[in-house]
Q: What sequence folds into this?
């Protein structure tokens, strides 16, 4: 099993759809992250969970709803998205969620909103 | 001022030469710094991290940190075509250590 697995790899959805992105880590880490990567923009931190508790919510619109049922799984629920939400969504995990704990990324979900 | 700033490039370096990538950050309290490499269409992968002022070497890679100048750099010696990628500098926020901020990345191209 690879360290951090994201599904699906690609997703096309209409603005009225509801879908979910899934992330699973097999590294025994305690913190999980969602980042958004758009063309020509830096990676944007969306949410951070540490020991299943949300510790960061970086002014993300409510049409994005995270869920962390346990330290190995992270979801991003999507509804009524806008075309500008099309991007690569990256999940990451780290051992402790502190500043000396590097991130390990999944392969990402390429999202297209039509 | 951006929290983490990098030149976007592209930076073109001949094969075998030294590639020098730079990053400045605004949070004076930040304690640790990471360099990630991202190939086109792939996710970022960690290549170096540094906590102390000075140099840290790992194979062909050297990270240099100067906290007084709020500056961190990455040197790649004996550059290879496989080093062609975007290099991302990442800095955890001092006020919230789980909040890791990325620069926009420098695109590096190694020409044969």
A:
């Amino acid at each position: 099993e690879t360290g951090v697995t994201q599904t699906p790899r690609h997703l096309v959805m209409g603005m009225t759809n509801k879908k979910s992105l899934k992330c699973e880590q097999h590294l025994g880490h305690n913190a999980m992250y969602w980042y958004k990567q758009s063309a020509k923009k830096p990676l944007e931190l969306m949410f951070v969970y540490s020991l299943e508790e949300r510790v960061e919510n970086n002014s993300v619109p409510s049409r994005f709803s995270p869920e962390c049922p346990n330290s190995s799984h992270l979801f991003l629920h999507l509804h009524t998205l806008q075309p500008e939400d099309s991007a690569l969504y990256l999940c990451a995990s780290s051992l402790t969620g502190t500043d000396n704990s590097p991130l390990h990324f999944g392969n990402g979900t390429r999202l297209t909103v039509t | 001022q951006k929290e983490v700033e990098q030149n976007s490039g592209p930076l073109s370096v001949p094969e075998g030469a030294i590639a020098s990538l730079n990053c400045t950050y605004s949070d004076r309290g930040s304690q640790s710094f990471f360099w990630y490499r991202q190939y086109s269409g792939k996710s970022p992968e960690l290549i170096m991290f540094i906590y102390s002022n000075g140099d840290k070497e790992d194979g062909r890679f050297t990270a240099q940190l100067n906290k007084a100048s709020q500056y961190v750099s990455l040197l790649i010696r004996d550059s290879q075509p496989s080093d062609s990628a975007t290099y991302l500098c990442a800095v955890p926020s001092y006020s919230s250590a789980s909040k890791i901020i990325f620069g926009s990345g420098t695109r590096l191209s190694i020409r044969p």
Notes: Chain A has a mean pLDDT of 92. Residues 88 and 110 of chain A are 4 Å apart (CA to CA). The first strand of chain A starts at residue 4 and ends at 7.
